[in-house]
Write a structure and sequence with these properties.
The complex is a heterodimer of chains A (346) and B (524). Chain A is an all-alpha fold and 346 residues long. Chain A has one domain: ABC transporter involved in vitamin B12 uptake, BtuC (Orthogonal Bundle), CATH 1.10.3470. Helices cover 69% and strands 1% of the residues of chain A. Chain A has 15 helices and two strands. In chain A, helix 9 crosses helix 10 and helix 13 packs parallel to helix 15. The relative contact order of chain A is 0.18. The N terminus of chain A is likely disordered. Chain B has 524 residues and is of the alpha/beta class. Chain B folds into three domains: 179 residues, 3-Layer(aba) Sandwich (Rossmann fold); 51 residues, no CATH class; 250 residues, Rossmann fold (3-Layer(aba) Sandwich), CATH 3.40.50. A six-stranded mixed β-sheet of chain B has the order 6-7-8-3-9-10, sandwiched between helices. In chain B, strand 17, helix 17 and strand 18 form a beta-alpha-beta unit. The chains are: A mainly alpha (346), B alpha/beta (524). At the A-B interface, helix 1, helix 2, helix 9, helix 10 and helix 11 of A face helix 3 and helix 11 of B.
Chain lengths: 346, 524
């Protein structure tokens, strides 16, 4: 019944909007993505009060580095949600893509983990990215060509790909990785980890594409009203497919950074991340219904979540409470962004 | 290719019709949507396409605009064969279309909506937003649309949205535009403004194909009319030489009964019991101190333009809005405002304004939709027994002559008129003392319209009362008495026998209202 009463609102406010329509007013909707910035500042202040170690460059760089892999998944999810879809299998792609790549290049004998040795070791990174593309393309095929339900398809993908990783790696972490594969996760450029630079560049590229490119704007059009986008001449399916591929590609890339960062491919790499990824994206102002939100907003979402964890660690909160607090924070952050932006979240 | 083909369209030599379709057939599975249909629209002509729901109008529109491919038949624009299927840009340079469903994306600005998918010259060239705004301003100015291009489209009124869609459709260079029920969601004033705009465009040589359920609009705007029935072309004639009765006959395939029979009715006696009394009702932002009463056996119209507040008053009676002041009583008892269950118990039935949003659960069956208000009567202890639901629904289907394959069919599979009947069935299911029907014939065909109005009359005849909230003259003509609202106040009341001009003037606030209201209107 609440839907019924909502519907009458536009009719009631017709008189006001006509008056407003011709005036160039301040459009608050434009600043929706900034709604978490005050929260981040407050967190910074709390961190500063709680521990002197917070505002050191070591600590902040550490937080940023730990955010990189998660934030790449958030970037992927933001793009996919804006276009009006979902991809849950991202959290398995981050693990399975590196495993397949490494399995293809590692020698057949001698190591703790024996691969197929089919290709030279330098191809590990391109192979990993290629696997990402293949997973995205497969998801796209199932969702767009066979018209299967995207939520369930990618839920199946999540389980299937995780299983593939466990089967290939025999359930163990792979430690002897090719040096080329670990370079990006380990290297430092100008005193800052390479992963942070790369992440920053990718977010900037994503943000610019969504703001200034026709195909980027098409994401909003498709997510907002796919039928209208189609009548405007946008190739809806093709663009959604490309977005799904880019999403999986980003997840595979996150896998490279993660493996490099920790020097091994863990069997549970990325497991359970998708909840945090969705939470970060949504509190960052991206709508689950599509057509709304920005890459920058999603970034503030990740930073908020990571800063909270960091501040709590510094404050000496017992680790056993972490899970409880993580969930509570997601809900609190949602409430904050709901009232900061003044918009209902369906 | 696009250039060579658009040239003759604007040239002087060409006398070929801007659009001509012959022998068009289209099937969807077992259903024949169009059978050997044809239509031809001359340059600068305003051509109406009428027909009952399901006559094939929408299919023809999607074929004319290149969204669907016909199974057979040929399509020519200004003598040239139609562009290849899928070449959207080429299609849009020949034919523009304002679809029944809005194709405006609410979260994007007006400027971006206008230039969707062509915000920049090339895919990889960044969009220059300032430049885009400028182009949007220019385009809107060209068509005289007074809308700020930087506003988000969802803040626009229905009317402004429609003008934006027209401007966008024509900006591709087409000289022919298809308007699929453009007036369905507009109030009388909006329709006038739309027609003014269309006449303007026509003077510039733009041809129209105008689709509407309102025959009066066809007479007001168009010179030629084509009638479709049962997926086939019936006749094409000049509007001037075609009587209304003849037109309705062509649409329905049978001679229409005149509604004159109603008018012989004797008005209900002034002494009859008051069933619905609205006393000094004040609703925040919409109306102030509004009083109204409906007696047993009476059908009362509550007329008013979109912003007049008449819809809100009707919804308040049904419990959708909480009153700031005043009271509503049904059959002598005061009803708590703002509570739908309270209104239902008091005996109010509601036919809501927009059946798609407020009326129907589209994927559920006719039976479920029709019994949504009476689930408590369908079984003991809160259970809903399928057998009883079915029986109840069968009765409703017979009662309202709903054309459906069965009670279990999903409502989304029905035509507009039959969907509306399901909504009315739901309102009648509780056997209400007072039936509030808001724009009950919105978007339904002539035949269903007559039927629905007669059914509402039937409610009153059984000793109940009905309130029809509408700005539709046909709806109001079916009422014993019409109360007219303007800006939240009652400005006039008419008994039977009013003239159309009087009614429209009252709804527009021209008759008997202070001059202040008038200037306020023009100030917009």
């Amino acid at each position: 019944m609440s839907a019924t009463t909502d519907v009458t609102d536009p009719a009631a406010s017709v008189g006001q909007t006509t008056a407003k329509g011709t005036r160039r007013g301040l459009d608050l909707g434009r600043f929706r993505e900034l709604s978490l910035v005050p929260a981040i500042l407050v967190l910074g202040l709390i961190g500063f009060i709680v521990s002197p170690a917070f505002l050191t460059s070591d600590n902040l760089i550490g937080v940023a580095q730990q955010s990189t892999e998660l934030s790449l998944l958030v970037l992927a999810t933001a793009l996919i949600l804006i276009v009006g879809r979902m991809d849950l299998s991202l959290e398995s792609t981050i693990g399975v893509a590196p495993v397949i790549a490494v399995w293809l290049v590692l020698p057949t004998s001698g190591g703790r983990f024996n691969g197929l040795g089919l290709l030279p070791q330098w191809t590990a990174i391109p192979l990993c990215l290629l696997v990402g593309v293949a997973i995205g393309a497969l998801n796209g095929f199932l969702i767009l060509k066979l018209r299967l339900n995207g939520f369930i398809v990618t839920l199946g993908g999540l389980t299937m790909l995780r299983g593939l990783q466990v089967a290939l790696s025999e359930g163990q972490s792979i430690v002897d990785l090719p040096p080329s594969f670990t370079y990006l996760g380990k290297a430092s450029w100008l005193g800052v980890p390479a992963a942070i630079w790369i992440c920053a560049v990718l977010f900037a590229a994503g943000g610019c594409a969504l703001a200034w490119l026709r195909h980027g704007r098409a994401l909003y059009a498709i997510g907002g009203n796919a039928e209208a986008a189609r009548t405007a001449g946008i190739r809806v399916d093709r663009i959604v497919w490309v977005v799904l591929i880019i999403g999986s590609l980003l997840a595979a890339f996150a896998g490279i950074l993660y493996s490099g960062h920790y020097g091994s491919i863990s069997a549970t790499q990325g497991s359970g991340w998708i909840f945090q990824v969705f939470a970060a994206t949504v509190i960052g102002g991206v709508s689950l219904n599509g057509g709304k939100g920005s890459v920058f907003g999603a970034l503030t979402g990740v930073l908020t979540l990571q800063l909270v964890v960091n501040v709590m660690t510094l404050a000496g909160v017992p680790p056993l409470w972490n899970q409880f607090l993580n969930g509570a924070i997601i809900i609190v952050a949602l409430i904050i962004s709901r009232f900061a932006s003044g918009e209902k979240q369906e | 290719m696009a250039d060579s083909a658009t040239a003759p369209a604007t040239g002087i030599v060409s006398r070929a019709p801007v659009a001509e379709a012959t022998g068009i057939s289209k099937r969807y599975g077992a259903t024949v949507a169009l059978r050997d249909a044809r239509i031809s629209i001359a340059e600068g002509e305003s051509h109406a396409l009428v027909g009952r729901n399901g006559a094939g109008k929408s299919t023809l529109v999607s074929i004319l605009t290149g969204l669907q491919q016909p199974d057979t038949g040929t399509l020519r624009f200004s003598g040239e064969p139609a562009p290849a299927f899928g070449d959207i840009d080429a299609w849009r340079s020949r034919v523009a279309c304002v679809y029944q469903r809005s194709t405006i994306i609410g979260d994007l600005t007006v400027a971006e909506n206008l230039f969707l998918n062509r915000q920049s010259d090339a895919a990889l060239r960044p969009i220059r937003w300032k430049d885009l705004r400028g182009r949007a301003e220019q385009l809107l100015g060209e068509y005289g649309v007074d809308v700020d291009p930087t506003v988000r489209a969802r803040h626009l009124t229905v009317e402004q949205r429609q003008f934006v869609e027209i401007a966008r459709a024509l900006s591709f260079g087409a000289r022919f535009i298809v308007l699929d029920e453009p007036t369905a969601k507009l109030d009388a004033r909006g329709i006038d403004r739309l027609f003014d705009k269309l006449r303007d465009l026509q003077r510039q040589g733009v041809a129209f194909l105008f689709i509407s359920h309102h025959l009066q609009e066809v007479y007001d705007l168009c010179t030629t009319v084509t009638v479709y029935r049962d997926a086939a072309h019936i006749r094409t004639a000049a509007v001037a030489g075609l009587g209304k009765h003849e037109l309705v006959e062509a649409m329905t395939g049978e001679s229409a009964t005149t509604t004159g029979a109603d008018e012989a009715r004797t008005p209900s006696p002034a002494g009859a019991k008051v069933l619905l009394a609205v006393d000094r009702l004040t609703l925040t932002g919409t109306c102030r101190d509004l009083s109204l009463s409906v007696r047993t056996g009476e059908v009362v119209g509550l007329a008013g333009a979109t912003a007049s507040g008449n819809v809100q008053v009707g919804e308040a009676v049904a419990g959708l809005h909480r009153a700031e002041g005043g009271s509503i009583s049904v059959d002598g008892r005061t009803v708590r405002t703002g509570s739908v269950p309270a209104s239902l118990t008091a005996g109010v039935g509601l036919v809501p304004e927009d059946r798609h949003v407020q009326g129907l659960v589209h994927d559920r069956s006719v039976a479920e939709n029709a019994t949504l208000t009476v689930t408590d009567q369908l079984g003991p202890f809160g259970t809903v027994l399928p057998a009883r639901t079915r029986t109840f629904a069968q009765r409703m289907i017979r009662d309202l002559d709903i054309k459906t394959p069965g009670a279990g069919t999903a409502v989304s599979a029905l035509s507009g008129g039959n969907q509306q009947k399901v909504v009315v069935a739901r309102a009648l299911a509780t056997d209400p003392h007072v039936l509030v029907a808001i724009r009950p014939t919105n978007g339904v065909d002539v035949k269903s319209k007559e039927f629905l109005l007669a059914r509402i009359r039937g409610v009153a005849d059984t000793g109940k009362a009905a309130l029809i909230v509408s700005d539709e003259l046909d709806d109001l003509r079916a009422c014993d008495r019409v109360v007219v609202m303007f800006h939240g106040r009652v400005v006039a009341e008419f008994d039977r026998g009013w003239k159309d001009e009087q009614m429209v003037a009252a709804m527009e606030g021209v008759a008997g209202t202070p001059a202040a209201a008038e200037t306020e209107e023009h100030g917009r």
